[in-house]
Amino acid sequence: MKRSISLRLSAMFAAVSLIVFTLTGTGLFLLMQHQLFNELRETLDARARIAGLIVTHASDVKKWAFVQEKLHDLSPADSRMHYYVEAADPRFRFGAPIAGKITGDVGPNYRLVRPAGYNYDLIVTSMTLPANGERPEVKLVVASDCMRTESMLRRFGIALGVLIVLSTIAVALLSRAVTRFGLAPLTRLSREAAQLSPSNRRQRLHAGELPKELHELATSFNGALERLDKAYDRLESFNADVAHELRTPVSILIGQTQVALTRDRSVVQLQQTLQSNLEEFERLRVIVNDMLFLSRSDRGERATELTEVSLRAEVERMLEFLEIPLEEAQLSVQVRGDAHAWVNTSLIGRAMSNLFVNAIQHSPPGTVLQSTIAPQNGHVEIAVSNPGEPLDPVVREHIFDRFYRIQEARSNSHENHGLGLSIVKAVAEMHGGTVFVRSANGVNTFGFSVAAHVGAALGDAAANASVAPDAARQGRAGLPLHVSP
User: Fold this and answer.
1) Which residues of 227-247 are buried (b: 16+ CB within 10 A; e: fewer)?
2) Considering only Cβ atoms within 10 Å of each terminal Cβ, which end of the chain, N or C, has fewer?
3) Pairing mode, if any, of strands 111-114 and 101-105?
4) What separation in angstroms does the CA of 190 have from each of 145, 183, 260?
5) How many helices and strands (H and E) does the chain possess?
6) Do 280 and 349 belong to one domain?
7) In what order do the strands lie in the sheet with 101-105?
């Protein structure tokens, strides 16, 4: 069952109000009780002093008759005041003893007594008067009933309880209206969020008029929408590029197969057709493998099975695999610098081969390619430079994008599917690095960086992430040489 924030806030406000009102009411009740009993004690003390003066001056039996008459006159007809004099000599006694259950104390020498058959208490005080003449030492007990006080406190307590309940109900109702008003921006925000759909991906939440707390939430949500929108655009572009790249080899396979089936062919002709189809299948396989690798990189995977190696040694090992392509292109390579880093050798080999293949395909015969390895701010940069026409800044910004090619500037672009440099970028990111391209003085330099230390390569957030072992196995199986820029 879904809970309403408005109802929860109203209930909490009501509960808090009930607690506050109850504590306040209890305090008022105790204060009034204390004040009423103070007044009752003052009245009792005044009566006790008068009775004490009367008893003190009685020194013989004759005068004691006068005391009894005065004490009788001081006792009202409604029996609210009670006097009792206790003495060893029966002649100097007055009244009946005050008997009952002691229910409490309301101060020094003041007790509350509940006589049998009474539904209210008596407040009782006593004093000892010294002997005077014939009269022995006596004990004077004065009591006053608390019926009016207790009745007033009872009515006050009931009224206070009713007020507390009514006030709590009023607070609950008012807080319901207040919380609805206060949560109105959140309701509007929810309606705006409900209107978001793939058909209006550019819509964003209006955060300008929201309160501070919701403004931060809306801003963060808009940021997430912006990232999702870019990812969606990237996915749409990627799907369109994939469809475009796969359409050509598929069309060739269909066309060649249809032509082969139109009439009888010799074994040699069928072998030629199958050989051509095999080349297209190989191209499809490369594209699919590269796309799978890039999809794993998009999920934020980091390189594992890291080994500390000499990057110069890895470059020289890669050049041994490229010896034949370099000889056919009449190119040579000069390697400069060295550094050690923690890398996955298969993935790094794949990225290096892509850089060298890119340079081989776009360098005139007889030139020398420059490979540079240099430490840089906790990273190691690996770059390959080749002579060529200057690259436009716009081109340099998108050169590592998937399926990006420059048809006018690259005469052999029809041979490539445009994922080679994208794979370089993915490998660099898996190792906590970046990619870069520079163009100056007739020399174009493509390169990437990797973190020099294993902690920086993995990153704190991705320390336990794993790159798919299939990627490393594909690299060891020979895929690093089977890519194009």
Assistant:
1) eeeeeeeeeeebeebbeebbe
2) N
3) antiparallel
4) 67, 11, 62
5) 13, 12
6) no
7) 81-87, 138-145, 122-129, 111-114, 101-105
Rg (CA), the chain: 51
> What DSSP letter does each residue of 108-130 carry, written as one string?
TT-EEEE-TT-SS-EEEEEEEE-
Does one domain contain both 233 and 254?
Answer: yes
Q: Is 366 exposed, middle or buried (0-12, 13-18, 19+ CB in 10 A)?
A: exposed
Residues paired with residue 361 on neighbouring β-strands, in sequence order: none
**Residue 419 CA: distances (Å) to CA of 252, 317, 476:** 21, 23, 19
- Tally of CA atoms within 13 A in the half-sphere of 353 that contains its CB: 24
Q: Which domain holds residue 379?
A: 301-481
CA-based nearest residue to 298, from 440, 429, 160, 454: 429
**What is the C-alpha separation between 290 and 355, in angstroms, rounded?**
15
Q: What is the pLDDT of residue 186?
A: 77
Contact 452, 379 (CB under 8 A): yes
Predicted pLDDT of residue 204: 74
The per-residue pLDDT for range 77-128, each reduced to its tens digit, is 666 788 999 999 999 999 888 888 988 888 888 999 998 888 888 999 999 9
Query: Would you state the pLDDT for residue 124?
Result: 93
Sign of CA dihedral 424, 426, 431, 436: positive
User: Does residue 239 share a domain with residue 309?
Assistant: no
Does residue 185 fall inside a structural domain?
no
pLDDT at 299: 66
Last residue of a domain, one of 294, 315, 333: 294
In one-letter notation, the amino acid at residue 421 is L
User: pLDDT at position 138, please?
Assistant: 93
Q: Report, as ranges of residue numbers, the positions in the chain whose pLDDT lies below 70.
A: 1-3, 77-79, 199, 201, 238, 241, 244-245, 296-300, 405-418, 454-485
